[in-house]
Give the backbone structure.
Amino acid sequence: MVTREGVVLDQGGRRVELPVAPSKRARPTAVAPLRAVAVAAQPVETAGPAQGAAELADIDLEEFDAFIEDLRQNIGDVSGSPAHDAAGEPVGLVLDRIPEGNMLRRMGLRPGDALTQVNMMAVTDMDALIAAFDKVAEDVLAENELFIVIELVRDQKPDTIILSIW
């Protein structure tokens, strides 16, 4: 569930809250440029004190739109291979190559990360990755505010990256 305070996940029957770092700047008005703030969050147990979120990047919405278009046109710049479970079923996309300066890196992703979901959309190949970010772009235009939740496995541990776009 996504709220203004963060994201609440169910990880194996355990409720995990991922708070969003408070913004240090005022919310933009309708005429101000739209901005995206990337936030990496570590799971925080609900019984414990809130902690964890750290700001990673400030991404301009126009740059994000250009990234979506570039991802479709230059899919060869980013490479990934499907990840499979023991039964051979696809469970994610391992990012093999992400060029320096690429928006995926600015979002906090790095080579070796195994993406499993973007906003609850399964990512098992490059086409699914593009489709997920296309959907994100549509949602941003329709709502002018959105959390992008990227579920991944990094260093054999589940992780989550949250992007707050407004």
